Amino acid sequence: MSGYILCQTKKADSPYFIENISTNIYTLEELCYYLYHNLYLIDETIINKELCDWIQNELNLGRLAAKLRTVIGKFSSAEDILYPVFKEINYLTYEELKVLNGRIQRLDRESLPVREKQKGDALMENGMYVHAIQVYQKLLERDDLNTFRDGLEESICHNLGCAYSYLFQMEKALEYFEKAYEAGHERKRLKTYLLAVYNIRSREIYKNTAAQMGADKELLEEIEEDLVKLDSQPPSMTDEKTSDLLLEKLTEKYHRATGS
């Protein structure tokens, strides 16, 4: 997969539509790329009879299509689909295959709620915020999330706040940043919520909220430092874009720190 890969199979006249990320693909190489980079999005919306028919009719790969049809309907592991597809064009190097094996093993060990949360995260990374919100909201209907992983509920609420902010539904974003803090009362959640209050409402409301929630001096100083950095952005930026930029930076920092 390293470097440039020349197409080894024909390009389809009619594309296959990947519903999860609203994308058309035309080659087996593109399908391999999607599968490799989106393990958590592999479900019945892509692994189905229509995919097999497309591989047979558009790519002229009848043997591969027949092989995949044998696992359609009893699909229980990602490797059942991945390995035949990748092997068809030797898409992965030996080292990349080892990495993939490790990723699949970790995925198989994860509980369903954790896998669904990762699915929502993958949708977020692909800019499919509405779909991600649907996944996260469905998860929040459960009352046992933290039994599967500590802080899972807080993480889902935080990511919902980010998803709504990217859709410029700022009041909903604020609601879920607050829920993320209420779910675990973690300091980093309070910081995110207060920054959102400042950017979505006003500095006065921010100060009152910080006092009501018992934010300590050290946290307030950290927030002030972040606000100074935000104020240094070009003046041409609108308030909405500034808020979105700040939340995006906070989200990136959060993901790097927690891996969630």
What does this protein look like?
With 260 residues, the chain is mostly helical. It folds into two domains: 16-109, no CATH class; 112-258, Serine Threonine Protein Phosphatase 5, Tetratricopeptide repeat (Alpha Horseshoe). 64% of the residues lie in helices and 2% in strands. Strands 1-2 form a two-stranded antiparallel ribbon. The longest helix is centred in the C-terminal third of the chain and has 20 residues, at 239-258.
Task: Tell me briefly what this model is.
The protein is 64% helix and 2% strand. The protein is mostly helical and 260 residues long. It folds into two domains: 16-109, no CATH class; 112-258, Tetratricopeptide repeat domain (Serine Threonine Protein Phosphatase 5, Tetratricopeptide repeat).
List the helices and strands and how they pair.
Elements: E1 16-18, E2 23-25, H1 28-37, H2 49-57, H3 62-69, H4 79-88, H5 94-109, H6 112-125, H7 129-139, H8 152-166, H9 170-184, H10 187-200, H11 203-212, H12 217-231, H13 239-258
Antiparallel strand pairs: 1-2
Envelope shape: elongated
Main beta-sheet strand count, sense and barrel state: 2 strands, antiparallel
CA-based gyration radius? 22 Å
Give the CATH topology of the largest domain. Answer: Serine Threonine Protein Phosphatase 5, Tetratricopeptide repeat
- Mean pLDDT across all amino acids: 85
Q: Report the CATH superfamily of the largest domain.
A: Tetratricopeptide repeat domain
Helix content: 55-70%
Sequence of strands across the biggest β-sheet: 1-2
Total number of beta strands: 2
